[in-house]
Amino acid sequence: MNIFRLAGDMTHLASVLVLLLKIHTIKSCAGISLKTQELYALVFATRYLDIFTDFISLYNTTMKLIFLGSSFSIVWYIRNHKIVSRSYDKSQDTFRHYFLIIPCLLLALLVNEKFTFKEVMWAFSIYLEAVAILPQLVLLQRTRNIDNLTGQYVFLLGAYRALYILNWIYRYFTETHYVHWITWVSGLVQTLLYADFFYYYFESWKNNKKLQLPA
Amino acid sequence: PSEGNIHDEL
Q: Does residue A212 fall inside a structural domain?
């Protein structure tokens, strides 16, 4: 565990907490894409199949449980909570899951570290995580007024990915045999998807203006 | 040491 990895995980955790804060205290999920949240729940469900078979550390298991629990409860809140679900605008969140899920599944069947069920599912989860933010980014572009919490949520998610890249660079130079092409390439793609968002996020921050993405 | 297919990242 290096500082970049820990900072990345903490940023990821912070993003989840920001979203839960919005849902719990403001009782709103306005501007949040249910599609993206459902994809994340699927990402964690398929990636953490090893949770009971491969013990890595207490930290690892705890974080897995947090990400699994939070992602499924967020989906539950947006879909089923009496008050929260009212703020969900289905007509704006139109991205189709299977446009992302099916190509990722096919790619996982072709490109994986080992052709076993668990490894194919793991590769699938890596590919899917890389593109799972797309429905959220599309929704942001359609939203006239992006509230601060939603902006911070997406920013923290992007920051988490950028920190993971630093973690890989660090690990590559400090560990022997540390080469993971699947995670590296997908992680790079995933981070690049945030580039546009980052640009407008920093612009709005610099100019002290409300965040708004151009159509 | 070969890490095999142990995925130690989250």
A: no
Helices A134-142 and A148-174, interaxial angle, to 10°?
Answer: 150
* Structural domain span for residue A198: 3-207
- pLDDT tens digit sequence for A120-170: 999 999 999 999 999 999 999 998 889 999 999 999 999 999 999 999 999
Q: What is the DSSP letter of A111?
A: S
- Mutation for B interface: A54, A57, A66, A116, most B CBs within 10 A: A54
In a domain, A111, yes or no: yes
Asked if residue A215 belongs to a domain, the reply is: no
Q: Which residues of B touch A5 (CB under 8 A)?
A: 9
Minimal Cβ distance to A56: which of B1, B5, B6: B6
Q: Give domain status of residue A45, yes or no.
A: yes
Which residues of A sit within 8 Å Cβ distance of B? 5, 9, 12, 47, 50, 54, 56, 60, 63-64, 67, 113-114, 119, 122, 164, 167, 176-178, 183
- Check if the beta carbon of residue A30 is closer than 8 Å to that of residue A147: yes
Number of domains in chain A: 1
Helices (H), strands (E): how many in chain B? 0, 0
A165, A188 in Cβ contact below 8 A? yes
Q: Which residues of chain A have pLDDT under 70?
A: none
